[in-house]
Amino acid sequence: MPSEHHQPRLYTLSQARRSLPGLAAVVIVMREKARRLDELQALRASLRRSSGADGNPMTTDDSELQAELAKLERQIGELIAHVGRQGVEVKDVRRGLLDWRAERDGRVVYLCWQYGERTVSFWHELSDGFGGRRPIVVSEWA
Known about the structure:
The protein is an alpha+beta fold and 142 residues long. It is built from two helices and five strands; from the N terminus they run ααβββββ. The chain has helices spanning 13-51, 63-85, and strands spanning 88-92, 97-104, 107-114, 122-125, 134-135. A five-stranded antiparallel β-sheet has the order 1-2-3-4-5. Strand 4 (122-125) and strand 5 form a beta hairpin. The longest helix has 39 residues, at 13-51.
């Protein structure tokens, strides 16, 4: 497998917007798997608390639960890698937050989308993160 030492892909605004429907579909699946993972982790924690409540070590066999958790974690990792191979970064699985690298005024910034938004409508500096999001003014993005 070739080493991944190339420059990250830079997207134009229109390329990022065109790539969104396919990526949004992956985000929906990823969020559902993360929701299920959270439910199962809560269930496992609850089982461990209740089985240890009498002072005895946990006797519940949660190997099936552990296997399901491992499977979900692996599937989520594969989905993140799938998105990453397209040059897009998953910033938050549960929120469904994606960033595309793009060029603005000669520097690299992120185009940013969150699950539920109609299109890619925000950008931010690489160092700013979600809190630094600014609305895209299309005329400023040649």
